[in-house]
Amino acid sequence: MAKKVDKFESDLLRGSLDLMVLAVLDQEDQYGYIIQKKIREASGEKVSMSAGTMYPLLHRLEGEKLIRSRWDDSTGRRRKWYAITAAGRKRLTKQANQWNQYVQCMAGLMQGYYKPVPKLG
Amino acid sequence: MAKKVDKFESDLLRGSLDLMVLAVLDQEDQYGYIIQKKIREASGEKVSMSAGTMYPLLHRLEGEKLIRSRWDDSTGRRRKWYAITAAGRKRLTKQANQWNQYVQCMAGLMQGYYKPVPKLG
DNA sequence: TATCGATATATCGCATGACGATACATTAGC
DNA sequence: GCTAATGTATCGTCATGCGATATATCGATA
User: Which residues are bridge partners to A30 per DSSP?
Assistant: First the structure.
């Protein structure tokens, strides 16, 4: 049987899913299904947003003009491609900065329970 | 005029406020007002839970038997002291571990946007 | 003495957003 | 033909952080 990985609690994700999606779209234009898949795989199955989370999230980001969409009906499968906007990049930078600050803040609050993230590169 | 610090967005806090409170109580018994104050000060005013957040949270944790309470009416001011339970410590360890994993996961997902937390000590 | 700010706990309704369920259509493989 | 994967969408439910409000005590100060 496949090894079952427990997902992160949904409350933990609140406030950072937007950030993940914007980060994915900042690398290249994508459509919902693939964004979802990328995040799931990159997180080792620990962040697997349902469609009921993904699509409303994309609609919300589009409503805020942080991303924009374009339908592609050229193939048999209808796909809605998303691209990040200038405002989206600005928001991404801001939110990422906010996230980093929050992580540092928690590090201080958690004292002994916190284990620093290993250096990248 | 006092320098106004913007607080973290409330969605960012979801899922980690419990953790903060448990961490404070793991150090010593406290009552709500002080727990709130400690977290506010330790975060540089960036996490300032309202009373409408703090007290329901404490009641919830008590309902889950992660903390227990005791009224102190010996002084003029009625204070409800809280202590962490064995189950609470277990939960604290688990949640802290979960948090650390999540931070690492975000580090991977965020790639270039992530800045590692400076070494402690 | 009255008024104000800090201390101290509690509850209410609101807004947000992640979730599972459900729906629907296409395509590929068995 | 059946099933699984692909692909988007919406619905109602649930959890929880928040501001507003209520209540009470105490010290300082005008």
Answer: A82
Please tell me whether any atom of strand C lies within 7 Å of the Cβ of A7: yes
Long-range contacts formed by B36-42: CB under 8 A, 24+ apart:
B39/A109, B42/A108, B42/A109
Total length of chain B:
121
Q: What is the pLDDT of residues B103-116, one digit of tens each?
A: 999 999 887 665 54
CATH of A10-112, one of 1.10.10.10, 1.20.1440.230, 3.40.80.10, 3.60.40.10: 1.10.10.10
> Which among A95, A102, A92, A14 has a CA at the least distance from the CA of B46?
A102
Residue at A109: amino acid letter: L
> In chain A, what residues touch B98 (CB-CB under 8 Å)?
8-9, 12
The verdict on A72 touching B (C-beta cutoff 8 Å) is no
**Amino acid identity at A29:** D
Segment A14-69, tens digit of pLDDT: 999 999 999 999 999 999 999 999 999 999 999 999 999 999 999 999 999 999 99
